[in-house]
Design brief:
Blueprint (H helix, E strand, L loop, with lengths): L12 H19 L3 H4 L3 E12 L10 E11 H8 L19 E13 L5 E13 L6 E14 L2 E11 L14
Parallel strand pairs: 1-6
Antiparallel strand pairs: 1-2, 3-4, 4-5, 5-6
């Protein structure tokens, strides 16, 4: 689900509306585990990172460890390792995916700004992810996302995504999901 209330950003209204529609489509594809239609939204150089979150006593220090990632993936690794596990020829061997987790992403508070590079925008958003595995209770995690999008005609392609988890102890059943 996408909440697209514009709160800030240098991008014009038409760009904001197009980016908001892109996120609505992307979220629906991810929630449906439709990687075959999601992977083409990624640019060839796409990177997906989740930095390690730590709790620090000093509030002036970043809560994220520089250069340390829970996940550091590329378009190719997502397409060839992550998405393939759900293909009919591989699902029998993907024991962690059977039955599929029920995942829902709630994306809100979009902020769209120009990057200074032609046809690219920087987008920050908040995301709440709920996961139900088998008959276990729902697990939720909140995060902030920072994406770079590149214009593709009247749509967009993802160049990079960095997810900043709010929690330092990850409670998700596993991290092999795109947040």
């Amino acid at each position: 689900m996408l909440s697209a209330e514009r709160i800030d950003g240098a991008a014009d209204d038409a760009t904001f509306a197009n980016v908001s529609r892109f996120y609505g489509r992307e979220t629906a594809l991810l929630d449906a585990h439709d990687y075959a239609r999601w992977i083409p939204l990624l640019e060839p150089e796409f990177v997906y990172r989740i930095p390690v979150t730590v709790t620090r006593d000093d509030p002036s220090q970043s809560p994220f460890v520089a250069g340390a990632y829970l996940l550091d993936e590329s378009r190719d690794s997502l397409a060839n390792l992550w998405a393939r596990r759900l293909e009919p020829d591989h699902i029998d061997f993907s024991w962690g995916e059977v039955p599929l987790q029920r995942v829902r992403r709630f994306v809100s508070v979009l902020s769209v700004a120009d990057t200074g590079r032609a046809d690219e925008v920087s987008v920050t958003s908040n995301v709440l992810v709920t996961v139900v595995h088998q008959s276990d209770p729902v697990v939720m995690t909140a995060a902030g996302r920072h994406d770079i999008l590149r214009r593709r005609g009247d749509s967009w392609g993802l160049v990079e995504r960095t997810v900043h988890l709010d929690e330092s102890v990850v409670r998700l059943p596993h991290l092999r999901m795109v947040i």
